[in-house]
Amino acid sequence: MNSRTCEDVLDLLEEKEDCTEEELTLLLRCEEPQVVHRLFTLADAKRRKYVGDAVHLRGLVEFSNFCRKNCLYCGLRKENRKLKRYRMSWEEMYALCERIARLGVKTIVLQSGEDPWYEAKPFAEFIHRVKKLQVAITLSVGEREPWEYALWRDAGADRYLLKQETFDRELFARLHPDDDYDTRLECQKVLRELGYQVGSGNMVGLPYQTPEALALDIKKFQEWDFDMIGIGPFIPHPDTPLGHFTMDPEKKCLLTLKVLALTRILTKTTNLPATTALGTLVPGGRERGLRCGANVLMPNFTPHPYRSQYTIYPGKICVQEAWGGCLSCMKEMVTKLGRTIATDYGDRVRPIR
Ligand code: 5AD
Ligand code: SF4
Ligand code: FES
Prior knowledge:
Layout: H1 2-16, H2 21-29, H3 33-51, E1 54-64, H4 90-102, E2 107-112, H5 120-131, E3 136-140, H6 146-155, E4 159-161, H7 169-175, H8 181-193, E5 197-204, H9 211-224, E6 228-233, H10 249-267, H11 276-281, H12 285-290, E7 296-297, H13 325-336, E8 340-341
Parallel strand pairs: 1-2, 1-7, 1-8, 2-3, 3-4, 4-5, 5-6
Helix pairs in contact: 1-3, 2-9, 3-10, 4-5, 5-6, 9-10
Bound molecules: 5'-deoxyadenosine, iron/sulfur cluster and FE2/S2 (inorganic) cluster.
């Protein structure tokens, strides 16, 4: 009976590409193999319909692992004294961006913990310089003041990633001792008004996270109409307060893929990465993501020895890979799946409503 109802929801999704939060919860709870299989197949078809077969590559540079915050789940949290910290200099970062651009990568993602060492003005000058390499620039450096976001946008930054992690207010508060739910969303508003393409996202399999909370995330993704949404499994880090919350990896993988698939169907043209966390959770995780709605991959270009020190969670894949190796690895992955590598910048195209 349960599976019949789920089939009904799938019919609805196939035709209307929309459903209620309750209906999302029903599908998230369902473990019926045929239902799950049909959901994934549908998401793959919608991905092809709305964003095609091309996979966009976003070159990732993790330039500092210092963070002023203490998010309960994250290995970069300030109170993790075991972590060896690093900061790349502007010159080091620029030389790296030049090399990435020369490889034909069209987007560079500059990511770090929340590190005030990188002041707004020199950062703007840096962005201005990197823009001349004719790449799209995505920033992922957390919460800052509106004037800083504005300065960076003027300097040429194109996109900004700032994940909500969960849209459940209570869970958000429990996980983020330094953060306010509405302040985070206010940042999103500011960024959007400044003309950034904005990205959000969540973690799946967090302690105390219910299917209802995940359904809410998906509805919020749809409501906010984000340009990019990063959906990844929570992977416990032993040197954090949540280090002991384990869950069967395959179960967590399936749940993450369901969230990804449903997000594709409801948001249509949003850019969805097959995350490194998904590839870390289970072998072939990213490939499975690409077949359940994802259309983006993020090759890691962080130089050694820093790469192994950006341990937001343990066991991260690609850490041992030689510099530039992820690019060829991903090209092969995409080809094997019968897909192509995008040659354009991969800006998000809004669906016609
Ligand atoms: N497992 C998976 N993802 C994590 N992140 C942080 N900690 C973890 C973890 N333990 C992700 C969050 C955050 C980014 C820095 O990394 O989504 O946005
Ligand atoms: Fe810092 Fe981001 Fe990790 Fe929170 S999730 S501790 S803000 S790096
Ligand atoms: Fe990094 Fe395969 S993508 S090693």
